[in-house]
Amino acid sequence: MTPVARSAEPLDPAWRRPRPSTRGYRRDSVLALAMLGGTALSVTLTRAAGVMSESPWWQVAIWVVLMAGPLALRRRLPELVALVIALVFGVGAMFGVGDGFFASICLYLAIYAVGAWSHNQVLSRWVRLCIIAGMFIWLFWQLIVQANQATAMPDLSRDGFFSPYAAFGMLQVLINLLYFWAAYYFGDTAWQSAQRSAALAERTRELAAERERTAAQAVTLERVRIARELHDVVAHHVSVMGVQAGAARRILDRDPIAAAAALGVIEHSARSAIDELQTMLGTLRADDDQAGASQSPSTHTVDHLSDLADESRAGGVPTALSIIGDPRPVPGTIGQSIYRVVQESLTNTRKHAGRGASAEVRLRYETDAVEVEITDTGSGPRVTASSALPTPAASGCGLGQRGMRERVLAVNGQLHLGARPRGGYIVRARFPLLSTQPIPQPLGATAPEPEPAA
User: Fold this and answer.
1) How confident is the model over 292-307, as pLDDT tens digits?
2) 319, 360 in Cβ contact below 8 A?
3) Does the keyword Oxidoreductase apply (predicted)?
4) What class, spelled out in words, does domain 301-435 have in CATH?
């Protein structure tokens, strides 16, 4: 079996070929009329040439109608049509009513239609085999009878092991074998071709539906990404501006210099938010080629964590940043995720930790991973040492924490959110890195030559 045939087999083995349209049935009627006319003309010419016996015209007319007329139903009732035409063909041949030229074409079309259009493949197979077997039984019987009749084909000698009459009989058998094999084979081929076409059409519909679903999912994911970016940009900077505006309002009368510094932080946060929003919106509005060549909506990576710590300290939350391990190259997507996780965590600290809280950011480089941990000493929910799972409040169901989870999972990372046993809150994100990632070499340095294999 060829790969094409195997690829068409996902259809149910009980698949039924759909019937043709009304136009197809009209074509069958036209074919039946054409075969009817051809058969009538062939019989007329044969009778005029004196080849066939002088049967009554009414018998010949009935034979012609029954031989070609059922072809109008060959795709509606293929088995019944084939049986009727085979029976009429045999009767006409035995009694010399008709000729075999157009009658053979009608029988071929009937057997072909059974294989191509039957709804029951088992019944189709047995009907065709019975017709073919009956035709060969009749053929052998006629050859045997005529072999013992000297008046039948007297020009063909019966003498010898392989006489001229034996050669004639062998030729008749070979012609009929080829005739019935072609009708059987091409009928099955037509049915299999229709099955493959139906399978291809079904797969085409499935692919079109999948393409529509994928397009809808892409739109949804893009909306989620935009919402996440907007939340990260707006929430962080607005929270800083809110804290500084409140501080400036309280100390405006007694400490104008500190109030001016707070207003400066507000201005800086506003400008930073506008710059990030313009960068992100510019990327979203750009064409595909420009978007591919332009920078990402967020260009902040691990190199900008110190800026977040400075902003947090300016917002009234003492924040320490420590880097553990030897720094190594970090992919841009992971670097952006680390930056946004730290940004969201420090924003939540300013919102929920309460007065007097402090925060600490630890960036840890490991052999095959990079980990960032943000902790605070605020008055968040507490967990006990015996708690196996974080409390509902610690599970993180807000939009910010949901965004953190999505970012971390998008780069195959792991995220832990929860309250600390000694008070406060902890956010830990771990991102796997390729252990074979090359370490940058200083200029002029070359990598050691590999030792030859033994």
Assistant:
1) 444 444 567 888 888 8
2) yes
3) no
4) alpha beta
